[in-house]
Amino acid sequence: MKNDSASDPQVEMRIAPHQPSWPRRALHVALDLIFPPICPFCGERMEAEASALCDSCRRRIEEPRPPLCALCGASVPPNHKSRYCRGCPPRPIHFDSAFAAARYEGPGAEMVKSLKFGHCLEMAPEMARRMFVALVDTLPEIGPVDFLIPVPLHWTRRWRRGFNQSEAIAAELGRLAGVPAMQRNLIRIRRTRRQTALEPGERMRNVEHAFALAEPAALDGRRVLLIDDVFTTGATANVCARVLKEAGAEAVHVFTFARA
Question: Which residue in 125, 104, 105, 102 sits closest to 115, CA to CA?
């Protein structure tokens, strides 16, 4: 990848300007005074123009606990001698690394559920802001990034839900980081069973041959972040990464809000 090419967008650690107009801001302030925002998790009243959850719940979100597997990002015991967890060596891993901004427990898990199943789209910017901080810390290790690519839903599931939570997160994170989110290139061509209902060994078979690219040439020589809400066994991310690598992607790093 040529860094001196104007057509090669690379991550810039900046927050893009995004301020609502003053009438909209005034309306929000008035509504907050009449109907003060309440934290959806603990029920505490929040300050006007607060984010999707209160400061107390935000402080309770835990980051992944090191030491972490250098490949999949799983926590390993302190006395673990290898750089990798026990699950990584036996299976072929197609992504270059995986990292997350939070642990999938407490408010971190509730945020994922609230966005995905509660249709609380206000959670996407909150999750993206936390991911942006983690990305700034991790960028020196993974190198430059050309695109953010959200893990897709099958069109039937997206239609029923009304949105794709990974697309919502990727759009917000891309705005914060100044990196284009490549929406709808990676597509899910086969409807699959829900991964949460399957045993770890069944998950890879469930998503096998479920993904394809609408424009494979757009990935040639590119470095991408594969974006999802939560990383559990990594089966979905691994299959997606294989599709991206087969199209010529130079590097695929998996970045999720939470790590189970």
Answer: 125
